[in-house]
Design goal:
There is one protein chain. This protein is α+β, with helices and mostly antiparallel strands. The chain has two domains: 51 residues, no CATH class; 43 residues, no CATH class. It contains five helices and four strands, in the order βββαβαααα.
């Protein structure tokens, strides 16, 4: 499973190359395991009809059902599965010193 597939799933099309006009006219290869999560997130936020969000996507990327206390976010960052997940968690409370420290420690360890 690629990073983006933890947070989003395709619906109604077979994984492959798809022409999209968001954010510009490009071809997105949904079989690419290195597909940029931010691009997929932007497609989702632009109502791209062939994506659904997973429970992890709602929780990690958008904070739905997530305990956003600084101590919990710091703990989750320390156990993040990748840097994109750690960044998304940081974005829920970027002003927190403990959350920033956890992110800096995590990013130095990878």
């Amino acid at each position: 499973m690629s990073k983006w597939q933890k947070y989003f799933k395709l619906k109604g099309i077979v994984p492959g190359k798809v022409h999209v006009s968001i954010p510009q006219n490009v071809i997105v290869d949904f079989t690419d395991i290195h597909l940029d999560l931010e691009l997929v997130k932007q497609l989702w936020e632009s109502d791209f009809p062939y994506l659904t969000i997973t429970a992890d996507g709602e929780k990690i990327l958008y904070g739905i059902g997530l305990d956003t206390s600084a101590s919990n976010l710091a703990k989750m960052i320390r156990h993040a599965s990748n840097i994109d997940e750690a960044k998304a968690l940081l974005n829920h409370k970027p002003e927190s010193k403990i959350v920033n420290q956890a992110f800096n420690t995590y990013s130095k360890s990878i």
